[in-house]
Amino acid sequence: MPNLDGYKLKVKDVFSLDRHGEGVKYGPFTKLHNKQLLWHGSPRFSNRTVLREGLRVAPPFAPSLGKTNGICFYDLANAAAQICGPAPGQTAILVLAEVALGDVEQKRVLIDDTVEAPAKFYHSLQSIGAIVPDAEKSMDVGGVKWHLGPLADEHTKLDDPGSLGGQQPYNMFVVHDESQFCMRYIVTVEFSGMKPIVAAQNTVQV
After folding, report:
1. What is the rounded distance in angstroms from the CA atom of residue 148 to the CA atom of residue 138?
2. 201/41 Cα distance (integer angstroms)
3. What distance in Å separates the CA atoms of residue 187 and residue 40, rounded to the nearest whole number?
């Protein structure tokens, strides 16, 4: 799985996931283009809530603390694992979800609570990262893009004002519709090293 240098994850278990009713809600979005299999991580104490109720968009009245009010996904496992918060030697639970991104509004800065939703004619948001999975190594599985790595360093694009080089360490994708994705797998991983990265938290706790 795509991984960040200096931060090792060991896969312990992989479980196929079929939440009741989620596939039906996602059905209309299967016709949308640009579908990707992306990672999501939540704090350990919210895992049961995620499995029981799914990933939720924070309600308007929920305190955001400057974080996005949408649901965040990542094309790097480590980016999602950072949000889980365990120490080296502990385990974390990650979600792999099929996300219908459609037309993506790309931004070079972190997406926070000042961005309520994608602009008109866009289906999702992306905060562009400088370390990304090598696009040439991705694989199409039933019309869904799977990121396989290795990683590509695109820091040089930051100096080119005409490029879309990102100012964040990794890609972050945000959707604001709870029907726009379908959780496919649960992956338990073990940390064997950590490289601190500041990441946005987005899953509402109920």
Report:
1. 5
2. 9
3. 10
